[in-house]
Amino acid sequence: MQDECTVNQTVRYLGKKWTLLIILELYKGEGYTRRFTEVKDRLPGITAKVLSARLKELEEEGLVERRVEAGTVPVRSEYTLTESGLEIVEVIKDIKRWALRWKIENLACGAQDCRRCVL
Amino acid sequence: MQDECTVNQTVRYLGKKWTLLIILELYKGEGYTRRFTEVKDRLPGITAKVLSARLKELEEEGLVERRVEAGTVPVRSEYTLTESGLEIVEVIKDIKRWALRWKIENLACGAQDCRRCVL
DNA sequence: CAGAATCCCCTCAGATACTG
DNA sequence: CAGTATCTGAGGGGATTCTG
Predict the structure, then answer these.
(1) Is A59 helix (H, G, I), strand (E, B) or coil?
(2) Taking CB atoms and an 8 Å limit, are A7 and B98 in contact across chains?
(3) What are phi and psi of A111, to 5 degrees?
(4) In chain B, what are the domains?
(5) Contact B47, B64 (CB under 8 A)
(6) Looking at the C1' of nucleotide C4, which residue has the nearest alpha carbon?
(7) Which residues touch strand D (CB under 7 A)?
(8) Model confidence pLDDT, tens digit, residues B103-118
(9) Per residue in B70-100, pLDDT tens?
(10) pLDDT at residue B87, as a whole number
(11) Most CB contacts within 10 A, which of A40, B10, B27, B77?
């Protein structure tokens, strides 16, 4: 099946809602690292369920690494971009450049920290 | 809402199944142009319904232009990549490079004309 | 040839509530 | 704090049939 194509497969999870924004959030963190709640608080509207699912998916795909702080109460876990995750950020930047170039009518984005963040 | 972000919005339709493959198909056509059935035949597994829907969406987003040959029976219609559509191909190439670099286990893609086509 | 119409199942994603 | 469990509605996408 054509669905097996890497491009299609890749874009199937990258295309899901919130995924790219989560990656950018980790990218903005110190050492490309953020804690669960940190990401959650910085992405207004996302639910714990969705964030959890996306992070798990990204971990399985190798773009994100999870580390659990042992012996801390309450529990702390950190998510860090891997090398491949870091490289995909460049692609995201390109998408953003493309979008800003051809979809300038969309002012909502410029109003958010979306524009400042990685461009 | 964060959903208004251009990156997220863009990726919402680009991330749909078949979309990128359709764009690449047009890209491979003479003058970046292909007819409906041409695309359909070259993407085994796609249904007319989905192809139709994707092309309409891409047209609305300005990546594709539709031209109907007047007065021909049976009807012929052509789809051509616009300037913005052509530019997004570069992004798709980057995604493919990324995927081939980090997901080499996925041999299915290399076996198809997927690898030859644009890289 | 180039679709549109219908049916139907599945996944996505939000809301809400609960837990180690 | 960092999740999981459950329910629900909306949209995605395949199969099939029909049409100008």
Answers:
(1) helix
(2) no
(3) -75, -25
(4) 6-110 (1.10.10.10)
(5) no
(6) B49
(7) A 3, 35-38, 48-49, 52-53, 55-56, 66, 74-79; B 16-18, 45-50, 74-75
(8) 866 555 544 444 444 4
(9) 777 789 999 999 999 999 999 999 999 999 8
(10) 97
(11) B10
